[in-house]
Amino acid sequence: MITGTEPPAHAVTTSPDGTVEVTVNELSDPAGLEAKLGAVGIKADVTFLAPATRCAAPRFTGVDRAYGGEPAQSASELRSLVDGSRSFKATRVTSVRTIRIFPQYIKPDETLVVEFRDNGNPQVPWQLGAWLAQAGTSVKPCTPVTAAQ
Description:
By secondary structure, the protein is of the alpha+beta class. It has one domain (10-146). It contains three helices and nine strands. The strands form three sheets. A four-stranded antiparallel beta sheet has the order 1-2-6-5. It has a three-stranded mixed beta sheet with strand order 3-7-8. A two-stranded antiparallel sheet has the order 4-9. A hairpin with a 5-residue loop joins strand 1 (10-14) and strand 2. The longest helix is centred in the first third of the chain and has 10 residues, at 30-39. The chain starts with 9 loop residues before the first strand and ends with a strand.
């Protein structure tokens, strides 16, 4: 009898350079992932969403225009907005199941808000939305709504 061969739903490890690697194998137990992130010093709000859904906005006050600001008027403005935001710099998808968090972009008491949307595809299991909420502000619970296609 072999036990314990299934990977955990998620794992959090800290690298020597201070970055944090998060592996998400299963979209379950968001509170558990929040606790694991908290244990390495990252205040987080984690949501796992069904396919073709997103959280209704606004849920929080973002630190930059990447969330809740005026919409971009062109593709180049959107690219500039995203590239210049701390929210974008704080996380990076590094593989189909892994993200890397860069804590140097997260100021004290800010919340990293992450939404993993189920892709319904085992090869690319989820899509990531990640933003920073301003320090001292709350993040409302997610109300799932149909995502625009």
